[in-house]
Amino acid sequence: MICSYCGTEGLEDSCSFCGASSNIKRPKLKEFVVLEDVEKPFNELACFHTYDLLVLLRLVRKERTKAYDLMLTLKKAGKSPQIDQVMVNYSEEQYGLYTKRMKVIEGILIDRMGYRPQRVDDKLLAKLAERLRKE
After folding, report:
1. Is the distance from CB of 6 to CB of 21 less than 8 angstroms?
2. DSSP, residue by residue, 35-94
3. Tens of pLDDT along 45-74?
4. Three-state DSSP state, 14
């Protein structure tokens, strides 16, 4: 086996040169990422490629914004007889869940990149995709 980090041959449990474990799985780029991926446990999310995490972060932030807008709308209309407290509580719960999921992804990205991206726009993703194509 060949070490995926330094290229040393004859690998068994760990590399004799750099010490990397032979059973470490490096993140691979997925064909597509969907919002439901955010519900995966931390260990699975940590195996996502950085590009995929950025796309997922973008999706989660978008849904979080929608949940926040819905929560505000329901709170304003909360005195209306058609809006019951159950709907308001549900919207608050959804906003809280998306916030926590967003923080998990941001935490993984901070570990990898050293910072939390303020914006994940098309320009950032295009630059990263171009770098990945070159390598």
Report:
1. no
2. GGGGGS-HHHHTTS-HHHHHHHHHHHHHHHHHHHHHHHHHHHTTTSTTS-HHHHHHHHHH
3. 999 999 999 999 999 999 999 999 999 988
4. strand
CB contact at 8 A, 101 and 38:
yes
Cα distance between residue 91 and residue 102, in whole Å: 16
In angstroms, rounded to a whole number, what is the distance separating the alpha carbons of residues 135 and 61?
A: 29
Q: Which residue type is seen at 9?
A: E
Number of alpha carbons in the 13 Å side-chain half-sphere of residue 57: 24
The pLDDT-based confidence of 11 (bands split at 50, 70, 90) is low
